[in-house]
Amino acid sequence: MLLATSIAATFATAGWWTAGRWLPLLVVEAAAFAMLSAELDRYWLLPLRRFRTRLSHPYAGTASGTTPLAATQRRVLLSPAYRAVDGLLRSDIHDYWDEDDWRFVSYAARYDGRRATAVFAVPHQDSTPESIRVALVDDAGLTVYRPIMLATTG
């Protein structure tokens, strides 16, 4: 495209800003440059992918109880909340249940030498890893640990 524009500019009798017929070629070249430039992906490709995922998410529009447990577990394992308490967990999924727009998943854990339960809250509607929350609860039902998740921008 750059070569085609160079050849056209060589034989042009007026400047490109005065000839309206070259404008579509310049627009196509600018669009091609933006699409092929990795530095500009975050401005056009990432929002486009997020929009496509929102429209075609495999669990979009399903009832809250129909999300497979394996999908929920994968979301939990990829979340910052899981990474915050990974060293404290002592089992795989111990129990899970759905309430309203949330799925709760519990794991056996140990905190300060005491037995505890790690409870992850996974929203059905928000599929971002940052939306998952966790709290550690002891046998008496008191919350003994809840990490503070900082908001990240992508």
The gist of it:
This protein has 154 residues and is an alpha+beta fold. The protein has helices at residues 2-10, 23-36, 41-56, 69-77, 80-85; strands at 89-99, 102-111, 114-123, 133-138, 143-145.
Describe the overall structure.
The protein is of the alpha+beta class. The chain has two domains: 2-56, no CATH class; 64-145. It is 35% helix and 26% strand. The chain is built from five helices and five strands. It has helices spanning 2-10, 23-36, 41-56, 69-77, 80-85; strands at 89-99, 102-111, 114-123, 133-138, 143-145. It has a five-stranded antiparallel β-sheet. The chain is rod-shaped. It starts with a helix and ends in a 9-residue tail after the last strand. The model has no long low-confidence stretch (mean pLDDT 83).
Topology readout:
Elements: H1 2-10, H2 23-36, H3 41-56, H4 69-77, H5 80-85, E1 89-99, E2 102-111, E3 114-123, E4 133-138, E5 143-145
